[in-house]
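Annex B. Sample input.
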Amino acid sequence: MDGTVRAFIKPGIRVSIVLKKDQGTGLLTEGVVKEVLTNSPGHPHGIKVRLESGAVGRVKRIL
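Annex B, continued. Sample output.
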């Protein structure tokens, strides 16, 4: 499942995100969602979240 729909993304789920610094390479970082930062119901590049590790990025995949 992709990460472009906010309704699918809740705190506590495991996701793969792309960090701002990794957008050029597409390197993904896995973690558990702590907070959903995007307010709109969808975003074409992925919903922005903060992971429990503190990393912030856009969801590319819900695991």
